[in-house]
Fold this protein.
Amino acid sequence: MMAELKDDSDKVNEWYRRLTGALLKLPDDQRAELAEWQKLNVNYCTVFVSDWPGWTSIIGPRPDIGSDSRNKFRDLRLESISEHSTQIKLWNSPIIVAHVMPEHDYDVNLLENHDPNVIGNELLVMLSRQGREYSNRRTTDSHIKHAPKEEPYYTYTELFNNGRIEIAREAYYTNPPSIDTDYEYELLTVLQSALKVQFDIGVRGRIYVALSILGAEGCRMRRKDNILVNSLAISGQEVRTPETFIEELGQHDIADLARVMKKSFDYIARAAGLRGSVNYDSNRVFLDRFR
């Protein structure tokens, strides 16, 4: 009887062993299909032979190869935001944070050969009622778009050299501290642009999205200027949703992304005592924020 695999690294290693064996035994038609796909897609930098979609039907889906790295990145960044040690410092809680992370843990600088002006134009930040004067800056590790142009800042989107993206925005309401329901629409809009930028710089494969609320203790959910009737004060300084994932990069409409993100939005709403996000109808269709 085969011993049970102990962790994800064992599962990944076993999958690659199966891939090596399958590669040697590929029938001619599949070998030709792989060769054609390889010629069009593989660059041995961000896309590899192991990324061929055809492997799924032959040896099964590849186990998640980056969960530990993504979790460590998320932990480190949330700690940095809380301690105000990030490049762009946000001071007013609650702070909404989303991490948009490729499955692959790229060890190359994906931004090196891309025009920062183009990235700055395409990358979006979450909106604010305080105005829309944005600015861009390039650091050794990332490209950051923030608003306003000078401190105090209230929102930013940071694209790291390895293709990961951090989206952050302060709360609109701090007296009492509340989480506005409009954040869902704003996040979907920024996520739409983030996925396109990631694709343009060479990221491929599955994308994981993790949503967090920092400084959440005592916050309630608010729609525009009114606290929602059934909303309760959140218990705990942080709310962290499980990861959700998007299979394909590129162009996505808001409705598609809203279907993917509903579980995360529901998770946040339930932390505040609601049954789920108030921005979906009974058929789980996302509602226009200006409705």
Remarks:
- The longest helix spans residues 8-25.
- The chain has seven helices and twelve strands.
- The first strand starts at residue 95 and ends at 102.
